[in-house]
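Task 17 of the worksheet. Students: predict the tertiary structure of the chain below and write it out as structure tokens. Keep your answer in the requested format; marks are given for formatting as well as content.
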Amino acid sequence: MPYIGKGIVSGNFVKLDSITTSATATYALTNGGAAFTPQSVNQMIVSLNGVIQAPTSAFTISGSNIVFDSALTSSDVIDFILVFGDVNDIGTPSDNTVSLAKLTATGTKNATTFLRGDNTFAVPPESVEWQAVKTTAFTAVAGEGYFVNTTSGAITVTFPATASTGDTIILVDYARKFGTNALTINQNSLNFQGNSSPNPVYNTDGQSITCVYADATKGWIPTSDDDVTLETPQAYNAEYLVVAGGGGGGNESGNRSGGGGAGGLLTNYGGTAIGLTPGQVYTVTVGGGGSSSSGSAGSQGENSVLSGSGITTITAIGGGGGGRDGSSTTGGSGGGEGNSGTGSSGTTGQGNKGGDASGNPTPAGGGGGGAGAAGQDASPNAGGDGGAGLSNSITGSAVTYAGGGGGTSESGTAGSGGSGGGAGGSTGTASAGTANTGGGGGAGRNGGSSAGGSGVVILRVATSDYTGTTSGSPTVTTDGSDTVIKFTGSGSYTA
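Model answer:
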């Protein structure tokens, strides 16, 4: 209410602790034993020997010390020192007189938030302000809950770039469509369940996800997500050997065909591992060997394939068929050519070229290419040897794979099969490449089977990571601390 005269003085009035004098002019000011610093010398009343002292002339203030104009003696008595309220001090407000608008704290100030020690308003943990339904990508704010409608398509929600312990975000499948159009959380540089990647994906109809921020180590932790799945699974290392089926050897009339090329060979054993993602299914296709029949060129072997989420599909190309007069074919390794002509090419990084024919007057067929070397060219009346394969110890023992098949001649000798399952050529009934090595079939003389050998796919993972979930009945063994999964037929492995 209005009043007449000087304004009401309000503030913190203090009587300072007693001081014992001595032969000095400077004395420490204390209040309750703690140092006390007045804001102004003019707000003090000092009584010395029963006489009130004049500020500035009789005494001054230096920090928390009072300095008299001359040294006192032990017989002097400082009766008391009073300090009036701080300069411009508004005093202590009465109860229920300060509104939210008068506070400097940041954040939303309302009945659902509280004032934290860092002078910010926040929503209590597990308490949120619900927002309108979201139908497109959006950025979430701590302390808010969202109904997310993915009926029209998948949605990505971006979490805050910074967060404090206890921050909470709730996400709800509004239309029960997460199973059709998933909700993805962009972590925005913060960890989620202790991992920085991949971004969590929620794809179960009707899910409700409550995420609470813990700290920089674990980041956001879903305290409730219905299926409590680890949404940021970490890939683990795997090594592989993928060998395609070998090509069939030539069996054309005239006894001068080329050998079948070896199946393509791809491996990272001893090199850079691939990453398998837990829960993902990795499909294995083991290629069969190329066929051959009397009076025909050998056919190309079938591809072997390893594929699945998070890895580049690994495709080994089937070996080329052996032939005559231009009927050999390309493949992982190329088929050898018979009678006259050039052997077919192999696939870069998987195999090598087939051997050339010798030509008249005593023609013979070249050997099929191998993973380690090209097929040998034929010489007059002598079939070329199949190209050598490559040794690999992914199973724990050294095994040679993908050798080329040997060529044959009209009336002389036949070539030998390349190491690694390649079959030797024959002036009679030819042989097939060795099963599950990808070896090329040998060239024959007017009859008999000279099919290529089937391929193989082998995975090697740490035993601690091996899940035991497979299909296709692979052979599973251990080598040291690793588990080896050998597929001789098509199947799958669930990481």
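Marker's comment: The chain has three domains: 14-83, 114-224, 233-495. The chain has a mean pLDDT of 90.
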